[in-house]
Amino acid sequence: MNMSLTNIPSPAQMVPIETSPGYWTSVGRRLARDKVALLVGGIILALVLLALLGQYLTLGDPYGTSMFKRLRPIGTEGFPLGSDELGRDMLSRLMLGARLSLFMGITPVILAFFIGSAVGIFAGYAGGLANALIMRTVDIFYAFPSVLLAIALSGALGAGIDNALLSLTLVFVPQIARVAESVTTQVRSRDYIEAARASGASAFTIIRTQVLGNVLGPIFVFATGLISVCMILASGLSFLGLGVRPPEPEWGLMLNTLRTAIYTQPWVAALPGLMIFMTSISFNILADRLRAAMAIRS
Amino acid sequence: MNALVTPDLGGPAQPLLKVSSLVKHFPVKGPLGKKAVVRAVDNISFTVQKGETLGVVGESGCGKSTTARVLMQLITQDRGELIFDAAEVNSHQLPLRDFRRQVQMVFQDSYSSLNPRLTIEQSIAFGPRVHGLSPAVALARARELLAKVGLEPVRFAGRYPHELSGGQRQRVNIARALALEPRLVVLDEAVSALDKSVEAQVLNLLLDLKKSLDLTYVFISHDLHVVRYMSDRILVMYLGEVVEIGPAEALFTRAAHPYTRALLSSMPSMDPAQRTLASPLTGDPPSPIDPPSGCRFHTRCPHAEAACRISKPLLFPTGEHHEAACLMSIPSSGHSRSPRGDQSMRHTP
């Protein structure tokens, strides 16, 4: 009855098999054909480069103040994008601001992605009582509006970048955990999970080899969409004085300090807001396109 | 090298699987929050002999699939035990992990039972890898099995499930089930989703594999033609209970239980002159939450009498290796058609 294993060819003798492109390869190909996705991807790439290299590219001095050159309009000699309420070069500050703004927008989402996925996948796979306990706890956090929760946590922890990152992470963990739990619960009921269980694999092995590949994609798309929310929340925290502290350039904080100049120099005052808008909408569209590209039958 | 081989313990006469008094109830919330249970499998016992194919038939919802999942220990029974080749399953004699290696299942939905993110050779190699074969050996075995089930490894090993047809996917599922060199394969509606020509190919493949690999099958289906073609013995289930069990030919020619006879007469015939005119069974089976008293079939049985509502018939021999649970087959059961006899075989409710 036993299949003999003696006639198995050694790996060297094996004929190369025909392979199909994997799922992620086909998703990548679809994205590469999507002009809008390429455009917003390009914008995001440019912003990331700006964040990484901004300090070497700035022409003016992002920190140098001047009482005589305050609130210059866009196009002034030496101030291509005008100057702020303390006479600092707006262009340099916007470029340098990309670093903190993106950092504050992306880091909490990455942290929450790992924590929330772990919590949600565990709850979804375990099911039953463990699931109920974890998910009802998550729901308590979920009941608060995210802005309110971020401000409350940040306020309780005290101002500062670290605390802002921590509170934003805590805001996103429940949201990601919920998505992770729901996709895992769906996957869990598939027959291939039953088949894997029937082969005697441990829960850990099944999650690693059978579940992760099927749930990380949707969770990732959801998390990408959260980056824009996170940037806006982070800007809001800075705006309220709970995030980045002056004189560090950050778009939310700049928007805050320039709001008094909205009547004298509306265009200059609107620039940081424009950057926030452009970045968050780019991430939003990218998430949307990614979702579409991943919706292929696989 | 043969790390997965398991010896035949009890000899050829020892049943491969002995199921006794198996019970599986599912709790459900009834109306008004009342707690109720679905009696999916209610006290069934049977044996599977080495090398045979035991067909399991019954209407939708009669507990066929629940039985399969309990046999696979994907869900645990509330009561009853499984004896696999003289060893109790999930005991120190036969730990679950060892049992799983010897019993595998082919699912109905060929698509849902393959991981869409894995190539089919990865899916097949998964089980052997779990049981400690090296990746290279496991993949080699996967390709060997693909060839065995009639899929050219060079063309198919690296493909993903969505690139295959239903029949090809079901062949992959069969290969996956065989990858652990099981002794018993549970086929739960394994060909029901395939179209007729492909179904015939897969059935013949299953018969060939059974012969060449010395397998034992539990073949679950609602299609009586297919069950007759495949099975040595047939077990008929109704509302979570076994109503009749016997050799395939005897059951088809001399069905003892009115439910079996009704199922047989509802089989679509190939001969237009033999058209089934009146539906032999009307209505849906009663709810397994609150099954009828006495004989569970009495609500739909043409021969039901007062005794059927009171006495619960147990399986009683009606021929060689042939048993049915019907008062009409049990002597002195109180049913007017019951065979006369003085030994009291009457069963109390």
Automatic annotation (TrEMBL), chain A:
Listed transmembrane segments: 36-57, 100-128, 140-158, 164-180, 215-242, 262-287
Keyword check for Transport: yes
UniProt domain ABC transmembrane type-1: residue ranges: 98-287
InterPro entries associated with the record: BP-dependent_transpt_permease, MetI-like, MetI-like_sf, OppC_N
Keywords, in A-Z order: Cell membrane, Membrane, Transmembrane, Transmembrane helix, Transport
GO cellular component assignments: plasma membrane
Compartments, record wording: Cell membrane
Entry membrane topology: Multi-pass membrane protein
Keyword Transport: yes
Highest taxon in the source lineage: Bacteria
Coiled-coil residues: none
GO biological process, alphabetically ordered: transmembrane transport
Family note: Belongs to the binding-protein-dependent transport system permease family.
Protein name: Peptide/nickel transport system permease protein
Organism (species): Pseudomonas duriflava
Lineage, broadest ranks: Bacteria, Pseudomonadati, Pseudomonadota, Gammaproteobacteria, Pseudomonadales
Automatic annotation (TrEMBL), chain B:
Main location: membrane
Keywords: ATP-binding, Cell inner membrane, Cell membrane, Hydrolase, Membrane, Nucleotide-binding, Repeat, Translocase, Transport
SMART domains: AAA
Basic and acidic residues bias spans: 339-349
Membrane topology value: Peripheral membrane protein
ABC transporter domain boundaries: 17-264
InterPro entries: AAA+_ATPase, ABC_transp_ATP-bind, ABC_transporter-like_ATP-bd, ABC_transporter-like_CS, Oligopep_ABC_C, P-loop_NTPase
GO cellular component: plasma membrane
Positions of region (Disordered): 271-293, 330-349
Reactions that this protein is recorded to catalyse: a dipeptide(out) + ATP + H2O = a dipeptide(in) + ADP + phosphate + H(+); glutathione(out) + ATP + H2O = glutathione(in) + ADP + phosphate + H(+)
Subcellular location: Cell inner membrane; Membrane
Molecular function GO labels: ATP binding; ATP hydrolysis activity
EC number: 7.4.2.10, 7.4.2.9
Pfam families: ABC_tran (PF00005), oligo_HPY (PF08352)
GO biological process: peptide transport; transmembrane transport
PROSITE patterns to which the protein is assigned, alphabetical: ABC_TRANSPORTER_1 (PS00211), ABC_TRANSPORTER_2 (PS50893)
Entry function: Part of the ABC transporter DppABCDF involved in the uptake of various di/tripeptides. Is also involved in the uptake of phaseolotoxin, a toxic tripeptide inhibiting the enzyme ornithine carbamoyltransferase. Responsible for energy coupling to the transport system.
Quaternary context: The complex is composed of two ATP-binding proteins (GsiA), two transmembrane proteins (GsiC and GsiD) and a solute-binding protein (GsiB). The complex is composed of two ATP-binding proteins (DppD and DppF), two transmembrane proteins (DppB and DppC) and a solute-binding protein (DppA1-A5). Five orthologous SBPs (DppA1-A5) are present in P.aeruginosa, which increases the substrate specificity of the DppBCDF transporter.
Record-stated family: Belongs to the ABC transporter superfamily. Glutathione importer (TC 3.A.1.5.11) family.
Protein name stated in the entry: Glutathione import ATP-binding protein GsiA
Organism annotation: Pseudomonas duriflava
